[in-house]
C-alpha cells in the first residue's frame, strides 16, 4: 500500500522527522521557491512549513489530496486558513513551542539596544576602541510597555520583572485584574506610547495591527524611547521608524522581523541605532525540537482521521478518552440519517445523553455533520469543512446535551426536520467495556442492530407475510440477511423493518421490495467505505 506523503517545505528538526518514522513517504522541497513548491504539492497528504512558505489559496488548490497543513511554530500569517477550511484541510500549529525562545530573544534585543552591544561589537572588531560613543541606558526604574500581553508578552513581563522596571501593557482583550496579577498595569495605546522608555511588540499580525505603530504614534513617544519587535514585520511601520530615528524622535530599535522576508536592504540597516536579527526569535535547538515533534504528532493524528487538539480551524477542544468511541458512532448515525431522509434537513439536532455529556462533546456534533454530508457532496468531508457545508446549505445545527439517559447508556441521536416538516431521527449507543456501537432507534421505533456495512430500512403497514416477501426477494438476488428486526407502534399500525445484509442491496432491489410490501419508504445505506 502507498504510504501517505508528507511534504516538508522548510527545515524540520531531526526529532520531528523521527516522530514521523517510517510510516510516511517524507519528501523535502524548498517552500520559498514557488517554482519548485507548487508542483511538489500534487499527491501530498500533509504539508509541514515554518514562516517562509506561503500556503495560500493557489498552493492549497495545487494539493488536491491535502488533509493537513502543519505550521512548525506559532504565527499563521503565511497560511490562508480560510482557503484551507473551505477545502476541508486541517491547519495545525505548535502554539507554545517557541514562546520561551521568542521571549528570551526579546530580552536579548532590549538589552542589546540599551547597551549598544551589536554596534560596539562591530566597531571593536573593526579595530575601533570607542567607549563614550556607546554609552547606554539602564533598565532599572524604566517603564517598559508591552503591546500584546499574550503568551510571549507575559513571558517577557516575567523575565523583565527582576530588572526593576515598571511594566505597563496595551491589550484590550485582557482583564485588568489578570494583568495586575502579573504586576502589569493595563493602559491605553496612547498612554503606553507617552509613558514608555521601551516599547516591545507581541501582537499577532492582523488587519488591526498592521501599521499600528506608524508616523502619528512615533510622534507621541519620548525621544529616548527604544522599540523592539520580535512579533511580525509591518506592525511597526518601517519607514516611519526610520524617519523617527533619523530625526532624533526615537533613540533606537531592536528588530527581528520585517514586512517582507528574507530581506537584505531594509532602510533600517543603515542606522547605527538599530540592532537587527534575521527572524531568529524561534531559532533555538529547543524551540525547533518542540515545534518539530509537536507538529509531527499532529500530522500523524490528522492522517489517522483522529481529532487533533492543536487544530486551529476545527471547533471544539481536546477530545476526552470517553468521548473518542463516540466519533465513529456519530459519523455513522449522520450517514444513516441522510439515507433515511433522502434529502438535506433544514434543521438538525445532535443530542448527546448520558455520562459522556459531562465532557466537551462538541466534536460529536462535527462527527455527525461529517456523516450527514459524506454521501451528499463530491468533495471529501472533514471535521473542518462539515460545519461550513451545513451553513452553505442553510441547515441550522444545534447540539443538545443531557447527563440523563435511559438505562444509564450513552446515547447519541441525530434528529432532523425536513423541508416538508417531517422529522427523521436515528439514535445509537456505546455500551459495555468494549464500547460496542448499536443503532437503538430509527424514526421513533426502538430496535437494537449493529451499524454494519450494509443496512436497509422499510417502513410499511403492519400485516402478516411481509417478512417472507422481503426474505424471498433478497434470496432471489443472492443477498444474505445477517439480521432482521421488526418494530411497530401498535398491532396493525405502522411498522419498520431494519435489516443488516452481507452485501449491498442494489437500488432496484430496494424498489422491488418497497413495491411488493407497499412500503411508505425503503432506504439502504452502505457504511463500508
Ligand atoms: N520572532 C519570532 O520568531 C516569533 C516567535 C514566536 C511568535 N512570534 C510572533 O509573536 C507574536 C505574539 O505571539 P503570542 O504567541 O504571544 O500570541 P498570543 O496570541 O498569545 O498573544 C497576542 C496578544 O495580543 C493581543 N491582541 C490581539 N490583537 C490585538 C490588538 N489589535 N490590539 C492589542 N492587543 C491585541 C491578544 O489579546 C493577545 O493577548 C505573534 O505575532 C507571533 O507570530 C514571533
Ligand atoms: O511564528 C513563529 O512561530 C515565529 O515567527 C517563528 O517562525 P519560524 O518558524 O519561521 O522561525
Automatic annotation (TrEMBL):
Catalyzes the reversible oxidation of 3-phospho-D-glycerate to 3-phosphonooxypyruvate, the first step of the phosphorylated L-serine biosynthesis pathway. Also catalyzes the reversible oxidation of 2-hydroxyglutarate to 2-oxoglutarate. Pathway: Amino-acid biosynthesis; L-serine biosynthesis; L-serine from 3-phospho-D-glycerate: step 1/3. InterPro entries: ACT-like_dom_sf, ACT_dom, ASB_dom_sf, D-isomer_2_OHA_DH_cat_dom, D-isomer_DH_CS, D-isomer_DH_CS1, D-isomer_DH_NAD-bd, NAD(P)-bd_dom_sf. Pfam families: 2-Hacid_dh, 2-Hacid_dh_C, ACT, PGDH_inter. It catalyses: (2R)-3-phosphoglycerate + NAD(+) = 3-phosphooxypyruvate + NADH + H(+); (R)-2-hydroxyglutarate + NAD(+) = 2-oxoglutarate + NADH + H(+). Keywords: Amino-acid biosynthesis, NAD, Oxidoreductase, Serine biosynthesis. Its EC number is 1.1.1.95. Transmembrane segments: none annotated. Residues 455-529 form the ACT domain. NCBIfam families: PGDH. PROSITE patterns: ACT (PS51671), D_2_HYDROXYACID_DH_1 (PS00065), D_2_HYDROXYACID_DH_2 (PS00670), D_2_HYDROXYACID_DH_3 (PS00671). PANTHER family: FORMATE DEHYDROGENASE 1, HYDROXYPYRUVATE REDUCTASE. Belongs to the D-isomer specific 2-hydroxyacid dehydrogenase family. This is D-3-phosphoglycerate dehydrogenase.
